[in-house]
């Protein structure tokens, strides 16, 4: 059973991801029946799988979801955002159950609420409401009649409560005179009056559309008030250029209170508004959709084993090359040469096999952003580019959490609420961009928002109060350094702690994770304009370029990424400052570190006139490492020292050289501090 | 296997400082001849370094140094026993390894208290088979990180 469980879990995850992807696309284009079909297929497969594996709750929920989707597919119900929300919610529940199974649970969960909602949606078309809906439609054509189905859950709740408390819910149709010039001003005046007598629950067209004069001459509002209808009407009529006011009692069916039920009329409005938004996104969606190709699943451990074997082969190849060079047998030489070329190709393929598109990490973000934006009541346009960029599997596994954190941060602290943004003269919808691209031997991932940006004064003050820096230090900091402060541990600039982020832990963890992957993070920000977090990561963790050096009889590898250059200096060029050896390197004073002393290398001390120096860099600090000889640049396979030897000072790992020996990799970051 | 679980314990016998020690076969991965070991700076002296074991970087411990015996250098018979223990792969250097023996459970006695003045916790027991005395090692204790840390601190 267990082997099936693994397959089940993997496939369930894929199907849930597919559900999420397609639902998001459907949200942008609710009429797309192809998407509904895709979702239906995924749900159906998931149902079958979970039923076979005996996960009844999972199967039940997917079954209900399937019913709703089927109804949508057959045109019995129309998709709208309320239904989507419920379906999204169901998918969340499904995911939670699958995760539970992963953790060894039984995938049980109380899903009755979602199931009820789904049932309600499903039965929506079978109930007499259909008739009511058509009636409503008929009325709609004459006057701007609201259908209860247009209201969301919150609005329905307010109306119900107000009814219980003895207030009246009125539906008010207002018609402006056709000669009216300043429609928005009149609407504003009407709203002023309405706000005086009660509370406006909903307006059609929406308030913003009204403000933009984006309507003909009619508008309709739902008002909760305790004043009689006639009084309200008279008050509104006092506003000039009003042609007609109709006040009627607004009724909705309390007993069913299925806000999800859809009327044709309500739906059309939904579609119209979301269509416009979907248009500009459509291009991107279509370009992204065709990434999938034929694949098989291989356990990463097998790939590691393959890699190890291949390295052995490389080592033996080195020996063969040596032998053929000494034997000078042309036939042998030819064969070895061919073998070298083939194994080179093989190496490329093996390395490529470990590369996966970063989409694997990115694909869960749209869903997350949608949810966060909803929770925080912000409008966010999330753009993802470069999802096809490939990275080593090990990096992919690690980079997810830091990215989640940065995205949450950008939404929580970066992008302002719609009202704030409007006050600042920005578009109400904030933009969050996630971008990935190759640059040399690195992959750059950028997260940018057009939000509030980083308030430097606030950061500096906070850093001083939290003891991250002193006031004296603060004066000499550059902008970049100030931005880097928010990555220091124990730091948070949000005034209030929220659920999303802002506990002051995290950003330093983000920084540590990225640095442990051999990458770095930089921040660029302009107050009021937005921020850009840029993460630079090595393409692969398993192969890096190093400079091999020798200290007495020992060989060490120094990552090329941290080397500025190498130099040979005369002993007389060495100066002393504070009893420390320093040199003047291109106008900068650079401290010298003797690798022999740091690593306590045994051996005779030779007194040379010249020193070989490797200039290394960490951030904007530099140091010169004294070595005996440079052996040369080489691509090496990075290996860990194993579980037994952890925390070895200034050693980040090991590698196996062509002669089969192990060489240690110098952790230059530890040396500069 | 059945023998081992019931009465007998199949063990590898190795020699260290003229005494014989035994390790359960199931915890031994392989036995290697001495090869090039890369020293790791900043580790306790009994950590000899790491070697390339068919593509896997494996740490090596000198058991003589670990137990505080005198260093006699390597000879033709010196061997490295690779032990896998709780996902940990470690090699130990011993003077010689030459025998596999079945130790009956009833031949095992607790470590005699008089064996030395200092009580060591890494000895599980002593087995007397015919005229041979085998010391049963508890490798978990030998490799225990806490104990090693203490040793390391003692060395300063």
Plain-language structure description:
The complex is a heterodimer of chains A (673) and B (156). Chain A folds into five domains: 2-128, HPT domain (Four Helix Bundle (Hemerythrin (Met), subunit A)); 152-251, Histidine kinase CheA-like, P2 response regulator-binding domain (Alpha-Beta Plaits); 300-354; 357-538, Heat Shock Protein 90 (2-Layer Sandwich), CATH 3.30.565; 543-671, OB fold (Dihydrolipoamide Acetyltransferase, E2P). Helices cover 47% and strands 23% of the residues of chain A. Chain A has 23 helices and 22 strands. In chain A, strands 14-18-19-17-16-15 form a six-stranded mixed β-sheet. In chain A, strands 6-8-9-11-10 form a five-stranded mixed β-sheet. In chain A, a hairpin with a 2-residue loop joins β16 (580-585) and β17. In chain A, α1 (2-28) runs antiparallel to α2 (33-53), α3 runs antiparallel to α4 and α15 (365-376) packs parallel to α16 (393-414). The radius of gyration of chain A is 33 Å and the shape is elongated. Residues 125-145, 254-291 and 495-505 of chain A have low confidence and may be disordered. Chain B has 156 residues and is α+β, with helices and mostly antiparallel strands. Chain B has one domain (2-151): Beta Barrel (OB fold (Dihydrolipoamide Acetyltransferase, E2P)). Helices cover 17% and strands 47% of the residues of chain B. Chain B has helices at 2-6, 63-67, 139-143, 145-155; strands at residues 8-16, 19-24, 28-33, 47-53, 56-62, 79-85, 88-94, 96-104, 108-109, 123-129, 132-137. Chain B has a six-stranded mixed β-sheet with strand order 8-1-2-11-10-9. In chain B, strands 3-6-7-5-4 form a five-stranded mixed β-sheet. In chain B, a hairpin with a 2-residue loop joins β4 (47-53) and β5. The longest helix of chain B has 11 residues, at 145-155. Chain B starts with a helix and ends with a helix. Mean pLDDT of chain B is 81; it is low at 1-5. At the A-B interface, α12, β21 and β22 of A face β4, β5 and β7 of B.
